Amino acid sequence: MRRKIVVGNWKMFKTPSEALRDFNEFVEISGALWDRVDLGIAAPAVSLPGMAALRTNGVAVHSQNSHWEKEGAFTGELSVGMLKDLNVRGSVIGHSERRQYFAETNATAGKRVGALLRAGLESIFCIGETLAERERGDLKKVLRAQLVEGFEAAGLHNASDVIGADANRPLLSIAYEPVWAIGTGKAATPVEAQEAHAFVREVLGEIFGADCASRLRILYGGSVNPANATSFMSCPDVDGALVGGASLKPVAFVELCQKAQ
Question: Among 125, 126, 130, 244, which is least packed by CB within 10 angstroms?
Fold first, then answer.
């Protein structure tokens, strides 16, 4: 039985002081929920030091990007060593906004994932199709390419590469986010989400083996909110959610996270 995971993606919202205030509130009101559901917040880089300094065991702090090189002349980037030093748990990688606005590719996203996992940090690897790709019937083609090309660039081929020391909390998670549902208020249906997740697990099985694929967690993202979260979480291959706008207010986000129990 895969343990559910819910991660809020705060994108480019909240000043560091606002982020610390809201993170504290979320940790406080979520109570012992983290004992039943893995919880996390992916925050802007400037907010990571303050949030991660709290060193709460209950809610993980994630970055929204990281680089594949150990160090170097890469202005604006974060290394995995920097994240580890801050006590950041891992990073969201390959989000569609990074792909759309900042020229992220399957290969560069994969290299970022590989660097994180080799450092013992977690990675939430985002994949998903545009509306045009779905309407052309290219859903499976797009998702397969994102996974295969990403893991090839990452140099990840074995189950041990992606599971890590704790099989109950694998280093790698996949977030399926249909691009047409992100920030639009139009979520995929639970049936559409389940079909996509089942296919993603099938491809993961081809790459890493069936046993590994059965352990890896696949999150749904795209206009998830407290009203529709239960319908997604009840799907057999939906192991949690990567949440954007609905994660910005602590009380509403806790309500959403409770649906994952």
Answer: 130
Query: Catalytic annotation on 177?
Result: yes
Catalytic residue among 62, 95, 104, 122: 95
For the chain, how many structural domains are there in total?
1
Burial (CB < 10 A; 0-12, 13-18, 19+), residue 208, is buried
Task: Please give, one letter per residue, the 3-state secondary structure of 107-124.
Answer: HHHHHHHHHHHHCCCEEE
Q: What is the CATH number of the domain that holds 118?
A: 3.20.20.70
> What is the C-alpha to C-alpha distance for residues 160 and 109, in angstroms, rounded to an integer?
20
Q: 143: helix, coil or strand?
A: helix
Three-state DSSP state, 192: helix
The SS3 call for residue 57 is: coil
Per-residue pLDDT tens over the stretch 148-180 = 999 999 999 999 999 998 888 999 999 999 988
Residues in CB range of 65: below 8 A, 6 or more apart: 77, 78, 91, 92, 93, 98, 112
Q: What are phi and psi of 91, to 5 degrees?
A: -150, 150
User: Catalytic one among 62, 104, 177, 197?
Assistant: 177
- Residue range of the domain that includes 125: 5-258
